[in-house]
From TrEMBL:
This is DUF3293 domain-containing protein. The lineage of its organism: Bacteria, Pseudomonadati, Pseudomonadota, Gammaproteobacteria, Lysobacterales. InterPro entries: DUF3293 (IPR021710). Pfam families: DUF3293. It comes from Dyella japonica A8. It comes from the Bacteria.
């Protein structure tokens, strides 16, 4: 993976919309924010998108349709406990990517979804433990 792209992944704010308004921000290698830790309890979770496959710009209608398909795929998983709207925001604030934060599925379930939606990586964790960047091979 290109070092600049990896640095961008690490510098991104992974924001999750809270039920009563506002956002909680996940940062790679930092513990899950308390508001999200309470929702995750001890379950695995993932912050994933279907926008911009292979980290390359894609038309807005195609991105929206792909994210809808990802939401449908997450909803039918028996292990899904909760899904919250989310957004990746680049360090300069200019880049924003609609995403989903899902509680329940672990990496064995999220990896195939990332591949299906041609995502190079996603953020995941277990309960309130530190968030981790997971890179996925698309070969």
């Amino acid at each position: 993976m290109d070092e600049a792209l990896l640095a961008a992944y690490r510098a991104t704010d992974y924001r999750v919309r809270l039920a009563r308004g506002g956002w909680a921000t996940i940062r790679i290698d930092q513990p899950l924010p308390p508001a999200l830790g309470a929702l995750a309890e001890d379950h695995p979770w993932g912050f994933i998108t279907a926008w911009n496959p292979r980290s390359e710009p894609s038309p807005r209608p195609r991105n929206r349709a792909a994210l809808r398909d990802l939401l449908i795929a997450l909803r039918v998983l028996p292990e899904t406990v909760a899904i919250r709207p989310a957004r990746g925001v680049g360090s300069d604030g200019q880049w924003k990517e609609p995403s989903l934060w899902v509680v329940g599925p672990d990496v064995s379930t999220l990896d195939p979804l990332a591949r299906r939606f041609r995502q190079i990586g996603y953020v995941h964790g277990q309960g309130a433990a530190p968030a981790r960047l997971r890179l996925v091979s698309l070969a």
